Each structure stands twice: as C-alpha cells, then as structure tokens.
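INFO batch 0412 | record 1 of 1 | parsing
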Amino acid sequence: MLRTRKIRWFSGTLVLLFLLTLLLPTAMLSQAEAAQAQTSGIDAVLVADVSNSMNTSDRDKISNEAMKMFIDMLPTTGDKVGIVAYTDQVEREKAMLEIQSDADKNNLKDFIDQLGRGPYTDISVGIAEAMNILNHGADPAHSPMIVLLADGNNDFNKSKGRTQAESDADLANAVKDAQAKGIPVYTIGLNADGKLNKNALADLAKQTGGKSFITNTPDDLPQILSEIFADHAKLNVVKLPSVTGNGSYQEVTVNVPNDSVLEANISIMSSKPVQIQLKDPSGKDVNLNSNEAKLSTSKSYSLVKLLKPQEGDWKLRVKGAPKDSIDINLLFNYDLQLVADPIKTKSYKKGDKIDLAARLENGGQPLQDNDLYADMKATLVINDKDTGKSEEQPLNNTGSGFAGTFEIPDNHNYELVIRAEEDSFYRESEPIIINAGGASGGQAQPTTPAGADDKPFPWMPVILGAIALIVVVVGGWFLLGWLKRKNRGFVGQIIVEIRDENTGDKSYPQYKKLASFRGKFHLHQLLQLDPELKETEKYIFTPGNGDRLIIRNTAGGTLEKSGRAVDASSGVELKNGDRLSIPLQQADKTILIEYLV
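INFO prediction complete | emitting tokens
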C-alpha cells in the first residue's frame, strides 16, 4: 500500500512539473507580448550620408534639419534614438539613447550640428551599422525603425579596392537582417543637384516595408516627417489651413477630438521665422515652455507639442513676414490598441460563419471614452493565403466596439485583419488565422473501432513516455533558469571617463543608466560603439547578487580595481562606489569606470 502511494505521489509530481514546464514559459511569453502590445515606443536609428557629395545634393543641410525635427516630434520620454553618420566608413555615431528629458533631445541635436563631411560614399556601411546599433541596443518592447537621408549614390575609394558587388552583398545582408526582424527603412532622398538615385532608395524602402520620399527643400520636411511617423505609428496626418503672413497674428483652430490623445505635434514651416502664441479651449494663454506645451525651433521649422491636451478647440496664433507662406501640419499620438476577440476554433470549412468582434484598449484596458467610436469606421481585410487575393468588407460600429460576420467562401486558408480608422489615426488588429484548407478543414476524425481497447496494456510506451517526461521536466527546469538569467535586469548607473595616455586629458564624465539592459551588455555599448574603442567589446557586464555588477574580460587579461591589478578573465565583482581602470592597448587610452547604485 505504501509503495503504491509513493508511486502515485511520484507520478503526480512528474505530471505537475510537466504541466508547469509547459505553462510557465507560455505565461511568461504572454506577459511579454502584453507588455509589448501596450507600448507604443519607437527605437529609431537616423542614418545620414555625410560624404562630400552632400555639399551639392544637400547644400542646405536638409538632413540635419530632418533629423532634428524627427527628434522633436518624438514623445517627451521613453523612446530611444541612435545616429550614424557615414561616408565609406562610419564617421560618427551615437548608440541608442533613451530620451528622458529635453536635455536628452538637445544632446542628440547638438551631436547632429557637429557632423562634418568627408570623401567617398558606401550606403551599405550606414545601413549595416544601423542594424548593429539596433541589434545591441533596441528595447524588445519598442517598435524599431531606420530613417536614411542620402542621395542613393556610392563613390568608392579606389585605393581600397572596394567594388559595387561587395557593397551590394553587404547591403543585401543588412536588408535580410532587417526583414527578418521586421525593421522598416524609410528613405529621404536629397536631390538639390538633380543626381538622386531614387530607384536604389525606393527599392531599399520597399524591401523592408518602409516608404521612400524625395526632397530638395526644407519646406517638404513637415509633410515627410509626419508621413513617416504616421506610417510607423498607424496615424493619419491632419492638414491645417495654410497661412500667408501679413505681419500680424493670424488664428488657426487646432481641434483635439478626445481625451485619449497623449500628445499633439503641430509642425510649422516657413521660409522666415514666425512668432507663435497658443490658447487652450477655455481661452487661457498657454506657456510654450511648461507642462502643457513645449516649443522647439530650428532655422527651418517650429514645432509645438501639446502634452496630454484637453479635448476641445485650441487656438494657435502665428505671426509671419508679409507674403510668407506658412504651412501647418497636425499629428496626434495615441496610446491605443485594437484588440480582436479570439475565435472559438481554428478549423473550418466552406460556408461556415464566424462572428468577429474587436474593441479599442488603452493600457490593456477597454477604452472608457466611447465618444471616440462616434466617427470611426471599421473594415475586415480578408487575405486568401491560397490564391493571394485580398478583399474588404465593412463591419458594424456598435458604439463600444466593432462587430460582423465572415462567411468562408471556399476551402482555403485565410488571414483576417480588422482595421478601424478615423480622421487622426487608425489601428489594426493582430491577424486572425482561419484554417479551412480543403478536405482536412473542419472534418471529424475517424472513430476508434469496437474492440480496439481489447489489447495488452502498452507498458513499453508508458515507460518510454515517463523517461521522456523526466527529460522534458529537467530540460524545462534548466531552460527556465537560463531564461531567468538571460533576462535578469540591472540596477544603478556607471560613470564613464576616457583618459588619453598621450596628453593626459580626460573626457567629461558620462552617466550611463543600466535599467534598459537585460542579461548582459558589453563596455563598447556604453562608449556609443565608437570604432576607435572597439577592443572594449571583450569586456562583458552581467548582474550580480545584492545589486552588484560583474565585469569579465572574455579575452583574458587584467584591469585595475582601486589601484590594484586583478584578473578579469573569471569576473570581477563591483559594489556601490567601486572604481576600475581599463587600459586599451590599441587606442592608447584608459577607460575609467565608477559603479553607483
């Protein structure tokens, strides 16, 4: 009796562990997916051709203005931006910087203003490095993208022996990586000298799911940048009436349609500076450097950002030079997702009817303001996966969501997407997969013949199954431990300084917060992937116990901790206040690090 109980206990324990092994990773994945669905953040790398050819194709440095305007249009906090300036090599770059304040945006814009020009061009260098930055520094919960500003032409250094075929191969590899990871490349072709290679840029955008634009004047920037934002964030650009300056203030109404708007970007473009005033829906004057609104200006644009604006009519007043044309665009930012109800089964046949429903959610919760539905229209987009044909059918607006019925027209496989749209934005649901693929779709499985159970008990399959079960449980246990270690977070920050051993000069301290990293990162990432300091890739950081940090030299060697040489090949533990000196042989520099919690 005791032996039987032990066997039952052991079997029950195995079954429980097996179920936990199956369910825990699924729960972890669903939480991660939910977090990602609730995040509208962007991880963008801005890639600029800074070769000497830009002196003619980008005489007015449109690329600089476009990059700065892109940064100003981003939300005030949360997004990440990296920058690559290339010729036939990476001239300057900035690793992914998480925007947490106006100072971070100014830091990025100051970096752009310092970009110079150099000889030769190789577009593959810029795109490959952008992918490298995203692969090392992107947030998995964000939506990645690349914006390329170039004329699309290559100009190789003959002394290096670089060929067009080699460049094409490297670009193809970078594009393949972008396609696999769903990273669109948006291209802005700069064409002041009329020598734009528009086909190369258009093809690059098309292959990666981005869009291609052409300009030879800063006047086009608001429309181009607005369309890039709109396409990537599923928004619609609202065009406001243009104004012809007369030397006096003129009023334009900016309607905020509902209280689900997180931000409203009002971009204002004119050939000469304009003066701007703003009143909220109650008629009160708004400070353009406050928690309500922020004004960003450059030599070719002004941008007013309304922060969590009140619903209603805002009054924008602009004063421009006489006869100066002033163009105004409006782009809203929403934290909304369109979520479709799950269907009952995944196997159907021709003629079956499937009831569909979807609703908007804010932060993972159903939308509270049903007024937002009032002017919305919803469409069911039907993609026949067997024939490649697509068609659309309207859905009903219920006042708190959308509903309709799809009747399966044939024994094919289908992908359904629900799209809801109003004047300022649109949203699409995750695809719904319908399996109605011919004879296998929806048919009952054969029944077991009578007497089929009158067979000896299959002990051997049970024993083999138990062994396999134990292997799965143990493997799952180790897998969960590995996933936990891989996704373990960091705390605190690292202060980094670089000392030139030839001159003794030290750089200004850089404060690097570690919260955005998971599992591990290398020192080169903290140094903004500076090519000169590439040997720092061998120094790997991992989280330790008790808010401590472990640094290890994967190539072997020593570093100085508190003035004493220590072997870093097996890992050196850092606690709050510890300092390190890491000498670099190739660059003749020393990296100085202080860890603070």
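INFO post-check: The two ends are 58 Å apart (CA to CA).
INFO record closed
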